[in-house]
Amino acid sequence: MSEAVCRHESSSSDEYEQFSNRKNCRNKNTVMPQNASEWTKHHLQKIGVYYNRVATSLEEFMSRIHNNASDRNLPPLPDICRKLIEFTDNIWSVNLDMREATLYDVIQAGKKSDECIDKLRLNETAFKEQLPHQNDKTIFEVWKTTLLCFWTNLKRALARWSYPGQTEGSFKHLFMLFSRICLLDPQPGGAYSCIKQIRGIDVCSIPDVRFNTLPEDGHLMLIVTKVKKYDAFQGDFDAESFCADNVVDDVLGQHGMELIVEAYDSALAPCVLGIICIGTKIIFTYLDISKHHLSKMEKSGSDKLRSIISYTRPFDYMDVNDRRDILETLFWLGYVQSGSYRTFIAEET
Q1: Where are the extended beta strands (E) located within 12-140?
Q2: Are residues 62 and 91 in the same domain?
Q3: pTM recorded for the entire structure
Q4: What are phi and psi of 197, to 5 degrees?
Q5: Rounded Cα–Cα distance for residues 318 and 158 (Å)
Q6: 245: in domain
Q7: Which is nearest to 117 in space by CA: 74, 79, 96, 146?
Q8: DSSP state letter for 267
Q9: 342 lies in a domain?
Q10: pLDDT tens-digit readout, 210-265
């Protein structure tokens, strides 16, 4: 009798364990992770958010952004930015594939950085003579300082580049310094966290880098940025064939959730502009979403609604041709973030 009871209890226990495992499996598929870092594309798709199947050209991508910006009276690119883009392109000749760099490549890039510094100092007076207004000269000084700072720190980074154990922190530091050349002001994402309710669960998001606008401009978030090492790429691709499948799933999921969490504070609200930075390669992203979709996903889900994240191909800011392609976009974003350079120019009293 006792033996039968024991067998029955054991059988019940096995059935309960199998039921629990099935239930846990279902929960993993239906319950959303509480941290954006645990999100995947699969989770995004469950709330109706998808990455485009193919990349968008930078021209088409920025046309969409500018159309949105014009509705919100965001300023166009000023003449001083065009001058600084021209100066940057003329001075910066360093060209380095940091993913495949040999020791010889690193040494040559260090020498090139020294040449760029000397060339900037040699041409500084001639550049400033092309700027008729004092405010433009002030902006020039800020740009010059950030460019010299980048090259100096690049040399420091290159001196240790052959060491094992390069981390995402190395690339984040370099990306933040690069963004400052375009007069952007990056803030570490860990300065604060944001929370968005998804299907009744509070999801916490801490991106790697934020670019916030001035509080008096009404919105805080301009760009949400994810930074990863080169191993976040997968498969073979080139500029023509790149698509979202060439980025590992968890990076896309996390970045997508980070865009969603920041949507209400976005300068393009409810749409959001982002960047995925993998090594020294920049992918611009744009979440096109409605307030209705954002509201629906908070409680009951949004299976019948669909929002799209469009994106560009990767642009390597250490490649002279790619850098030339993205400077106008980044300088415009710097102009918007600073409130038409109010952060650099003292108001007249």
Answers
A1: 49-51
A2: no
A3: 0.88
A4: -85, 125
A5: 12
A6: yes
A7: 146
A8: T
A9: no
A10: 999 887 765 678 888 999 999 999 999 999 999 999 999 999 999 999 999 999 88
Helix, strand, or coil (residue 46):
helix
CB 234 within 8 A of CB 248: yes
pLDDT in tens, 10-46: 333 444 344 344 444 444 445 789 999 999 999 999 9
Q: Which residues partner with 212 through β-bridges? A: 221
Give 142-208 as a DSSP string. HHHHHHHHHHHHHHHHHHTTTSS---HHHHHHHHHHHHHHTT---EEGGG--EEEEETTEEEEE--S
Q: Could you give the C-alpha distances from 3 to 8, 12, 16, 213, 296, in angstroms and in order?
A: 9, 14, 20, 73, 55
In the listed set 147, 172, 197, which residue is the last one of a domain according to the structure?
172
Going through the chain in order, the beta strands assigned E by DSSP cover: 49-51, 187-188, 194-198, 201-205, 209-212, 221-228, 272-278, 281-288, 307-311, 315-316
The amino acid present at 282, given as its one-letter code, is I
Q: Is-contact 253 276, C-beta < 8 A?
A: no
Contact between 207 and 227 under an 8 Å Cβ cutoff? The reply is no
| 87 falls within a domain | yes
In this structure, what are the phi and psi dihedrals at residue 52, rounded to the nearest 5 degrees? -55, 150
